[in-house]
């Protein structure tokens, strides 16, 4: 396989519905101390797609973030990328070739390239679903690695011990009418949206002057669920970054749900290309019977439609209705809005330094969950 790679300016990253592969996201992550880099690549279609006779080239790009692990080593991270998804049997060879070429663009102390793949899981055929239609998940890690490394030379691809971004999400087709969207919801979800309206829940499209309200609700939610707490400056950077002078900007909305003078829930909606993404959310323990989170999501969908979006990403649920999973509550809530459950391949590491990679695996035993990068 031959892949041509050329480093490019961040501002020239192409427009994409994947927020984490935009120039907007590179600016947000640069605030956190990560070093963004962007690359164009070109490869023959016949080399990445099976049964393809067209000898034209795929011309695409991707965003990479260099993240220091300590003073001696770093990790290269590709969030939800590369976007172009090769045929299953060619994915390992494609990632291997891409990684080997990328060595020369990375610091010598880079121990691995982590691809947070948004490609569809290989293990979504009928045999991986039970009689009730519930996904049973991928096979043992060793089997996953055997299949991914098939056709590679070095067998250097490893399944990460945990995923950074959510590996399961729900996509809503919002090109339908509002009536059709409501009819596709579960009856309880539809009822709760209307109940929130009867309770007088109002949704405010807020600016930076209301960031303290968001942060108060966010901290309460994080502490209630034992989650890592980002500082307020991080959310200020998300809300104020636009990257309007680039090829892949994003529009950010901070939405607040209020009733009787109390702010009960909040969320960040990000518009990128034709997709709206529910990026961050939080809710107060007060007046939960007012169903403010249902009102928020419905308003976010309507705003995304205003911007011409045809798709809405609910962004992160448990893989199935497993009550022991920490994201089961989100699964219950988000599946009520309809849409399709989508299982990503998740994080895969291409090892550049075997000895130091063991250090990374040990350090990640203390990982603090999703939404860190």
Descriptive notes:
This protein has helices at residues 23-31, 45-48, 91-102, 141-148, 178-184, 187-198, 211-225, 232-240, 292-306, 328-335, 354-363; strands spanning 3-8, 35-44, 57-68, 74-79, 110-120, 157-159, 168-173, 202-206, 251-259, 262-272, 275-283, 311-313, 340-351. By secondary structure, the chain is an alpha+beta fold. Strands 1, 2, 3, 4, 5, 6, 7, 8, 9, 10, 11, 12 and 13 form a 13-stranded mixed sheet that branches. The protein starts with a strand and ends in a 10-residue tail after the last helix. Residues 368-373 have low confidence and may be disordered.
Distance between the termini: 30 Å
- By helix and strand content, what is the structural category? alpha+beta
Number of strands: 13
Portion of residues in helices? 25-40%
User: Which shape, going by the Cα principal axes?
Assistant: globular
- pLDDT < 50 runs, ≥5 residues: 368-373
Beta percentage is 25-35%
Number of H/I helices: 11
How many whole angstroms does the radius of gyration measure?
Answer: 21 Å
Order of helices and strands: EHEHEEHEHEEHHEHHEEEHEHEH
Please describe the biggest sheet, giving its number of strands, its sense, and whether it closes into a barrel: 13 strands, mixed
Question: What's the rounded overall pLDDT mean?
Answer: 92
């Amino acid at each position: 396989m031959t892949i041509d790679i050329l480093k490019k300016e961040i501002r020239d990253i192409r427009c994409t519905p994947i927020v984490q592969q935009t120039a907007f996201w590179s600016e947000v992550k640069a605030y956190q101390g990560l070093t963004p880099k962007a690359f164009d690549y070109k490869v023959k279609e016949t080399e990445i797609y099976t049964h393809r006779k067209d000898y034209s080239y795929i011309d695409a790009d991707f965003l990479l973030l260099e993240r220091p692990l300590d003073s001696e080593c770093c990790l290269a991270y590709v969030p939800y990328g590369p976007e172009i998804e090769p045929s299953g049997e060619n994915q390992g060879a494609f990632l291997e070739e891409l990684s080997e070429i990328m060595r020369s663009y990375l610091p010598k102390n880079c121990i691995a390239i982590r691809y947070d793949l948004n490609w569809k899981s290989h293990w979504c055929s009928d045999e991986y679903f039970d009689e009730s239609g519930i996904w049973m998940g991928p096979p043992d890690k060793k089997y996953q690695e055997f299949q991914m490394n098939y056709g590679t030379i070095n067998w250097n691809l490893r399944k990460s011990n945990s995923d950074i971004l959510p590996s399961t999400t729900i996509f809503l087709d919002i090109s339908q009418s509002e009536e059709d969207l409501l009819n596709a919801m579960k009856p309880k979800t539809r009822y709760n949206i209307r109940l929130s309206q009867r309770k007088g829940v109002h949704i405010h499209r807020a600016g930076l002057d209301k960031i303290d309200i968001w942060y108060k609700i966010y901290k309460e939610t994080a502490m209630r669920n034992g989650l890592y707490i980002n500082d307020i400056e991080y959310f200020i950077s998300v809300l104020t970054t636009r990257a309007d002078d680039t090829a892949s900007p994003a529009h950010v909305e901070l939405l607040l749900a209020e009733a009787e003078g109390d702010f009960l829930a909040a969320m960040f909606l990000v518009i990128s290309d034709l997709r709206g993404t529910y990026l961050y959310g939080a809710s107060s323990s007060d007046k939960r019977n007012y169903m403010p989170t249902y009102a928020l999501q419905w308003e976010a969908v309507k705003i995304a439609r205003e911007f011409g979006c045809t798709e809405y990403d609910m962004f992160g649920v448990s893989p199935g209705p497993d009550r022991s999973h920490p994201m089961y509550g989100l699964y219950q809530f988000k599946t009520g809005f309809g849409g399709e459950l989508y299982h990503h391949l998740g994080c895969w590491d291409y090892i550049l330094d075997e000895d130091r990679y063991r250090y990374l695996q040990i350090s990640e035993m203390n990982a603090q969950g999703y939404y860190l990068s």
